């Protein structure tokens, strides 16, 4: 098996899916958060050359593709999702030549490359927004964004009660008295997608990266582009807050800011561009909307796939998970798409910690308590995370893996408030701690100023306990989480067949059991006691069996 540092030059026997234009339907995609993956120049910030040097880790892991979170010019008001130029590289992270070298090396290793596109908003440093500020009210430059006069006798009140996802009003006033809309941070002004220049510019962006060899796109906040901006703007009351909860109780497609029916026209237009390439470029929507509405984004004539957040948000409960899996497969099937599965990403508490918290735990309150109320047993959390991983990888569809979960990393919940970078912390007046705990740079070695992340320190402090999770500490170690992932991904590639599963009718309470075709089955014990194993050859287990029985918080794959 290839190990960390090996030059993997031929995956032809492993990566048969790379020859298939539908490779993404059951791919394993590894999310790279560039600033936290690997630092080549020692400035404490991850960069493209650092990623390129570590691509052999992904090839040896056995994933099909890497998804790069934003690497564009940005002042990092929102971790890179405030984009000043969507067709360039932040100079702190590298150059376009570095990007081209990364793509070339990834393709040499048999890896696809997916990049983030952030179409709902730009950075306030974007040349367009600077032009809008100088051009003044009523100008063509301001029409690219959402500017409005304020309410009140002197326009001193926001144009509506709309709220930012990060907290507070979604409107910010500029010196000439007008207000602009920002559904996220004030440094992220929303673009006006009724403006044809905006639409044309994003067509150019899709072609720009596709021409550079990118294989697909992850579309940030895909459900928010089209808005009802007809006058007078309507107040929303309890529906004014950001996020999926804002949609509750409103007829589908009628919220003025989110999930409007007209947004699908944009993605049908994009699909024509993506399909003009050979092979066609894939796309996946980040759309925080109910399943039936999410399926619309995943239709073959639109983006083709959409993230399944119901699965990520499900508790460690057999009945709940079975229902979510069943519904998710049905939703994807209805759309003509494949299902997607994800346990962690750059926006949520890592699942090695989250899955151990009692149902109904307020995650923000837990973070504010530095992860001590309640305390999480890291060993128990890792056991449950490993079981959850094997369950996810056995499901039909695409699995999205967040960097570091192959090492079993827990959430760094006790970051001092003085080091927090997430704008949520300041935007909410220190009420919400934010997402930095899942973005702490990766440990590659057991020693050094940043555990091998780079030759210097790291932009967020790493806890001393990270040494035990380092790649070098797990590489080649039987039973380690890294080796579990490598083995699981190698087996998965051999076992995959079709996009269906069949639930067992006689599974004990608290146990999930399903067959994948005629070849293999998955059994996950979510109960508190060991259970008998059904017949079959044990191919892989997330934890040692207990006298031939499947212990709690354990998943096993069985050959039939």
From TrEMBL:
UniProt keyword annotations, A-Z: Hydrolase
Superkingdom of origin: Bacteria
Pfam family, one: Alpha-amylase
InterPro entries on file: GH, GH13_cat_dom, O16G_dom_2
Keyword check for Hydrolase: yes
Glycosyl hydrolase family 13 catalytic domain location: 31-439
Gene Ontology molecular functions: hydrolase activity
SMART domains according to UniProt: Aamy
Family membership noted in the UniProt record: Belongs to the glycosyl hydrolase 13 family.
Protein name per the record: Glycoside hydrolase family 13 protein
Organism in which the protein naturally occurs: Streptomyces purpurascens
């Amino acid at each position: 098996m290839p190990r960390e540092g090996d030059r993997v030059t031929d995956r032809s026997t492993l990566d048969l899916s790379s020859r298939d234009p539908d490779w993404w339907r059951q791919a394993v995609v590894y999310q790279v958060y560039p600033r936290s993956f690997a630092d080549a120049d020692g400035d404490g910030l991850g960069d493209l050359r650092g990623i390129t040097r570590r691509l052999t880790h992904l090839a040896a892991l056995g994933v099909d593709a890497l998804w790069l979170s934003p690497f564009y010019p940005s002042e990092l008001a929102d971790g890179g999702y405030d984009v000043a130029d969507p067709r360039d590289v932040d100079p702190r992270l590298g150059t376009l030549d570095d990007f081209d070298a990364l793509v070339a090396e990834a393709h040499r290793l048999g890896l696809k490359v997916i990049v983030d596109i952030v179409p709902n908003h730009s950075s306030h440093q974007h040349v367009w927004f600077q032009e809008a500020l100088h051009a003044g009210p009523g100008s063509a430059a301001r029409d690219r964004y959402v500017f409005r006069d304020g309410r009140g006798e002197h326009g001193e009140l926001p144009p509506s009660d709309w709220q930012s996802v990060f907290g507070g009003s979604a409107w910010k006033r500029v010196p000439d008295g007008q207000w602009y809309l920002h559904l996220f941070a004030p440094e992220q002004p929303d673009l006006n997608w009724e403006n044809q220049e905006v639409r044309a510019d994003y067509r150019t962006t899709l072609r720009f990266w596709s021409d550079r060899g990118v294989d697909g796109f992850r579309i940030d906040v895909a459900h928010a582009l089209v808005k009802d901006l007809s006058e007078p703007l309507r107040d929303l009351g309890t529906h004014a807050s950001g996020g999926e909860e804002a949609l509750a109780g409103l007829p589908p497609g009628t919220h003025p800011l989110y999930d409007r029916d007209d947004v699908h026209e944009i993605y049908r237009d994009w699909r024509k561009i993506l399909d003009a390439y050979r092979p066609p470029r894939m796309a996946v929507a980040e759309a925080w909307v109910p399943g039936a509405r999410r399926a619309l984004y995943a239709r073959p004539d639109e983006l083709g796939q959409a993230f399944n957040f119901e699965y990520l948000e499900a508790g460690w409960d057999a009945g709940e998970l079975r229902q979510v899996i069943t519904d998710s497969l049905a939703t994807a099937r209805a759309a003509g798409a494949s299902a997607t599965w994800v346990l962690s990403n750059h926006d949520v508490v890592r699942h090695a910690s989250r899955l151990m918290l009692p149902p109904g735990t307020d995650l923000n309150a837990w973070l504010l308590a530095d992860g001590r109320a309640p305390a999480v047993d890291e060993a128990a959390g890792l056991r449950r995370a490993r079981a959850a991983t094997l369950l996810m990888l056995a499901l039909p569809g695409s699995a999205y893996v967040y960097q570091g979960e192959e090492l079993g990393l827990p959430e760094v919940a006790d970051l001092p408030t003085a080091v927090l970078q997430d704008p949520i912390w300041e935007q909410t007046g220190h009420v919400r701690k934010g997402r930095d705990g899942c973005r702490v740079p990766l440990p590659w070695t057991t020693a050094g100023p940043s555990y091998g992340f780079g030759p210097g320190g790291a932009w967020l402090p790493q806890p001393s306990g990270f040494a035990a999770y380092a790649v070098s500490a797990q590489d080649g170690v039987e039973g380690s989480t890294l080796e579990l992932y490598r083995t699981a991904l190698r087996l998965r590639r051999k076992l995959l067949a079709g996009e269906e599963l069949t639930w067992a009718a006689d599974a004990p309470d608290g146990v999930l059991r399903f067959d994948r075709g005629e070849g293999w089955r998955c059994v996950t014990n979510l109960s508190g006691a060991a259970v008998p194993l059904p017949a079959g050859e044990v191919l892989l287990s997330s934890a040692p069996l207990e006298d031939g029985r499947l212990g709690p918080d354990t998943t096993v794959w069985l050959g039939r």
